[in-house]
Amino acid sequence: MALDRALLEQQMAQLPIVQYEFFSTSQLVFSEKVRHICESECAQYGKSWACPPAVGPVDACRAHCLSYPHALLITSLSEVTDIENLETTLATREEHEALTRQVKALFSAQGVETFVLSTESCAICEHCAYPGGPCRFPDRMFPCVESQGILVTDLAEKFGIDFQAGGNLVTWFSLLLYR
Hints:
Distance between the termini: 9 Å
Number of strands: 4
Shape: globular
Largest sheet: 4 strands, antiparallel
Strand content: 15-25%
Strand order of the largest sheet: 1-2-4-3
């Protein structure tokens, strides 16, 4: 079934989406450097089904992502009391994840298949089953955009999205790939 984009945009106008952009997945830029940052700087590396190495090598992630010809990038903003306090900042992430689930549901209601990428590492379970068991909520878990090796900053620059809004504002990104 083809996406009724006009209907989707009408429905998204009712949601707290700050910016969005439809584009072809051929515009995605993948980089092993992004994966290196995951491995060397992220505390979740090797601890979640939403993160490397569980998501597979970048080449496999690229192939999977590009098997979906279309993409929708959405952003939301959260205000925090102290942008440098990681715990406070991450506490606002759930609102964006709920927004991402709403947009995914809009696609699903139209019968459109999606692969959803979102923020940071999955936080649905207090303790991820990785690596000893399967993901408990594969229908709710969204791998992070960067886990696939995707350069989010390239997308933000390409589409004029201000990812550093300044002050105590956090810009959250999700990418819904669809066919």
